[in-house]
Amino acid sequence: MRQALLACCILLAGCDLLTARGASADDDTPETPAPSPAPPAKPPSPWMLLPVVSSSPKLGTAGGGLGAYLHKFDPDSRVSIFGAQTIYTSTDSLVASAFARTSFGADHHRVVLIGVAGRIRNDYEDYLGTGEPLQTRDEIAALALRYQYRVHGNWWLGAQGSAANYQVLGESPEDDLALETLGVRGFESVGVGAVVMHDSRDNQDMPTRGFYLNANNVHYSEALGGADTFDAYRVDLRAFWSHGAGHVLAVRQYNWLTTDAPFAAQSTVILRGYKQGEFLAPYMSSLEVEYRRSLGKRWGATAFVGSARLYGGEDQEASDRNTFPAAGVGLQFILKPVQRMLACLEYAQGVEANRGVYLKFGYAW
């Protein structure tokens, strides 16, 4: 599940009432009436609706929509968002999700809650680098919760938990046999972990400066009700530098490490242009550089390059492909400049047939 989610700030605009000086009683000139007060400015709507579209050779074409409600609990907190999203694809996949991202108590408390359910049909031309085609049907239901508390300045500590029921099924008996041969299977997992975060960005969703660090782990355990015991660790580093008239240089370095994880729960490539879950290994590290150029009050453009590497497994080290480069461009339309909310249309190109077109809410990261 990608944490992809937005926040905005609702501002109320006011106006001054104008008065005219009345004429003297001895003046024969008719009195000029005072102008009527200007109507108050209409506050921004707390509702947000956006179409969501993506297309790639490996994913097919997907379309759907996102709806969200925005609310600010107190003046010193960031805006909270509550929403839902539904996606249907040309491969007859259907995924629905609901989410909440809250900030309250003068932004000393942050809670993120995500629930996902659906079916995902995949048609791989080259599954896991074996050179063999494979069709699968994945059934998924998952719930994740994260709580963070501001301990000092821009530093946060927190806890998180997740539960998932993920089943991988072949679309034919031959596909089931291939999955069994490759050792690919679904899993039930329940896990808990800790979160350490530093966040000095000036905005969570459209940052122009600042630094972000998120280090977290999840320990999945049979004792908690899961089918396997394994660990996952993630370290996400992002930096933003502004220059000129609103231009931003952004860099992200991301690490996803697993130990003793079932094959379907191992790390995957996290780059635009690649299908998550197609390439797997115990460890994944990636680096991305993105230039975000302002084209005025409402428009922007991006260009990005990146590369990911899968490593840590004997099969992966022997594979012909363990490095995955990507590059692309994007166009952004700022929906609400004051609240710094935008829609993003991007094209990303990976190696071979890995590429994609995405219309979504917000930047990729």
Largest sheet: 16 strands, antiparallel, barrel
Order of helices and strands: EEEEEEEHEEEEEEEEHEEE
Strand order of the largest sheet: 1-2-3-4-5-6-7-8-9-10-11-14-15-16-17-18
Q: Can you tell me the residue ranges where pLDDT is under 50 for at least 5 consecutive residues? A: 1-34
- The gross shape turns out to be globular
Mean pLDDT comes to 82
CATH superfamily membership: membrane protein fhac: a member of the omp85/tpsb transporter family
Please write the CATH class name.
Answer: Mainly Beta
Measured distance between first and last alpha carbons: 13 Å
Radius of gyration: 25 Å
Total helical segments: 2
Question: Which helices and strands appear, and what pairs or packs with what?
Answer:
Layout: E1 47-56, E2 60-71, E3 80-89, E4 94-104, E5 109-124, E6 134-152, E7 155-170, H1 173-182, E8 187-199, E9 210-220, E10 230-243, E11 247-259, E12 267-268, E13 280-281, E14 283-294, E15 299-311, H2 314-317, E16 323-336, E17 341-349, E18 355-361
Antiparallel strand pairs: 1-2, 1-18, 2-3, 3-4, 4-5, 5-6, 6-7, 7-8, 8-9, 9-10, 10-11, 11-14, 12-13, 14-15, 15-16, 16-17, 17-18
